[in-house]
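Colleagues,

For the teaching module next term, I've prepared a clean inverse folding example: a structure given as tokens, and then the sequence designed for it. I'd like students to try predicting residues themselves before seeing the answer, so please don't circulate the second half yet.
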């Protein structure tokens, strides 16, 4: 299954999979991996995935923290 990325209305609190992909700047395969690994919260209704804007924001904050810690560990070596 492929998802077409589209720009979301940023006033919405829930995104479709395509809108979440656009908002996070990732492809559908990456979003699906995040969903399956439990790294991003979602609801599935039939074949549709719904992702909260707060879940996207939390993931981005968490991901940037991981990136900073990884970069810091490289500097210490």
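(Answer key — instructors only)
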């Amino acid at each position: 299954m492929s998802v077409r990325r589209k720009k979301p209305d940023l006033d919405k609190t829930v995104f479709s999979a395509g809108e979440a992909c656009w908002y996070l700047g990732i492809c559908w395969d990456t979003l699906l991996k995040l969903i399956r690994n439990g790294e991003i919260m979602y609801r599935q209704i039939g074949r549709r995935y719904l992702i909260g804007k707060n879940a996207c924001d939390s993931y981005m904050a968490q991901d940037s923290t991981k990136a900073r810690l990884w970069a810091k560990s490289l500097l210490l070596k």
